């Protein structure tokens, strides 16, 4: 039986009112199965960022339905959203979003600490996760002492530590040079082979082609779906 991590049906989203109303998503439907690596590809203004924000519970939908890992997202409170985000989604952002005054170790441990884990246990898990991304020797370095690629690996470790079923990556190579970006994408593919479900937002077709499946978004609609040739 197929397990759906994401199930979006006929979702629409608008901003503004009256003559200034702008419809950004138009009855979008999307499913992502457990263990898939999906790229959502579209140019600026296509609606892909709004779709990402809805998937990540950063924004709310106007109409339609959304189930995340079997949980009905409709009509949840902000407190429920925060709890679901913490339990279900690991975020990786283009700008890394690391806290500059904290070490790599503490940045990675932070989601567990916010969830109530004691520091000793969180620190141990954070070190194990940094080792997994090849950065255990940099655990006590702060973000400004790390390269862009290393910072992104810290961000990936932070996304992994909670054992969330979904990793949501927003332009994860956008702030990296080409070589480092490919290394990060290769690491995503490795995580995917281990069973992680990954949804990646990008405007770059060459980046999207590294995923198993590419979903094209244009003018607020999903216009095409195709399988990537990359295995």
From TrEMBL:
GO terms for molecular function: ATP binding; ATP hydrolysis activity; transmembrane transporter activity. CDD domains: ABC_MJ0796_LolCDE_FtsE (cd03255). Keywords: ATP-binding, Nucleotide-binding, Transport. GO terms for cellular component: membrane protein complex. It holds the Pfam family ABC_tran. Belongs to the ABC transporter superfamily. This is Putative ABC transport system ATP-binding protein. It comes from Scopulibacillus darangshiensis.
């Amino acid at each position: 039986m197929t397990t759906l991590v994401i199930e979006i049906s006929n979702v629409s989203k608008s901003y503004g009112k009256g003559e200034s109303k702008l419809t950004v998503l138009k009855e979008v439907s999307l499913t992502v199965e457990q263990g898939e690596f999906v790229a959502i590809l579209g140019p600026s203004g296509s609606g892909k960022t709004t779709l990402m924000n809805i998937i990540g519970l950063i924004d709310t939908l106007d109409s339609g339905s959304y189930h995340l890992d079997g949980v009905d997202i409709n009509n949840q409170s902000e407190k429920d959203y925060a709890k679901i985000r913490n339990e279900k989604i690991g975020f990786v952002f283009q700008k890394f979003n690391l806290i500059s005054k904290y070490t790599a170790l503490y940045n990675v441990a932070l989601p567990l600490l916010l969830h109530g884990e004691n520091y000793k246990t969180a620190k141990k898990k954070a070190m194990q996760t940094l080792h997994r991304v090849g950065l255990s020797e940099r655990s006590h370095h702060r973000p400004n002492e790390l390269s862009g690629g290393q910072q992104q690996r810290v961000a990936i470790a932070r996304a992994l530590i909670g054992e969330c079923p979904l990793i949501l990556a927003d332009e994860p190579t956008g702030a990296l040079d080409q070589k480092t970006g490919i290394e990060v994408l290769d690491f995503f593919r490795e995580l995917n082979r281990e069973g992680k479900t990954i949804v990646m937002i990008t405007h770059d077709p060459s980046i999207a082609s590294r995923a198993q499946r590419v979903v094209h978004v244009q003018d607020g609609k999903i216009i095409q779906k195709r399988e990537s040739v990359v295995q």
